[in-house]
User: Which sequence fits this backbone?
């Protein structure tokens, strides 16, 4: 496995070594020893799996308590996966990183605690799985507007189309008024 730092050094792309032949392939998707050595800190307590059709945008989500680090990958299809630093006081506060995760590149994205997360489905259908460092707690979940101009995520949305959003995501907070973290809270 390779662990590639992004423009926000705490956000890491994990590139597995894939071994394949005419029968198929094999790869390790997680090794605690290598993950820990490279800044991916668990323990992981919950695995999640979602399926979405093309044009669905989920996010930008985070939890104020029971804060989650997430290790995300696309099992089927292709998504544009985004991490937004919402740690006030961080050198990269308000900045975002976006990467393509797909069943072809088999990459994973590590988002540590203190980041909002979202993804947009590019392929006809996508299934995303992720490991989380704490349990889902809907009472603490928050959402920042996916298209907030103060963040400026450059989603790969086809011109003239509108992403498919949940009611919760349509009601997301603007970044300027969103509840975020002070670094010492994480």
Assistant:
């Amino acid at each position: 496995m390779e662990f590639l730092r992004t423009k926000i050094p705490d956000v890491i792309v994990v590139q597995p070594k894939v071994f394949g032949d005419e029968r198929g392939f094999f790869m390790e998707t997680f090794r605690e020893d290598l993950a820990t050595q490279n800044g991916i800190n668990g323990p992981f307590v919950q695995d999640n799996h979602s399926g979405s059709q093309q044009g669905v945008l989920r996010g930008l989500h985070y939890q104020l308590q029971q804060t989650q680090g997430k290790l995300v990958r696309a099992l089927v299809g292709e998504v544009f996966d985004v991490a937004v630093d919402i740690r006030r006081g961080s050198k990269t506060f308000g900045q975002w990183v976006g990467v393509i995760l797909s069943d072809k590149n088999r990459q994973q994205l590590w988002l540590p605690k203190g980041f909002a997360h979202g993804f947009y489905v590019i392929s006809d259908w996508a299934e995303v799985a992720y490991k989380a460092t704490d349990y889902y707690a809907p009472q603490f979940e928050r959402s920042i507007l996916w298209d907030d101009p103060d963040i400026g995520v450059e989603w790969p949305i086809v011109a003239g189309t509108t992403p498919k959003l949940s009611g919760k995501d349509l009601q997301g907070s603007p970044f300027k008024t969103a509840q975020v973290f002070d670094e010492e809270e994480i």
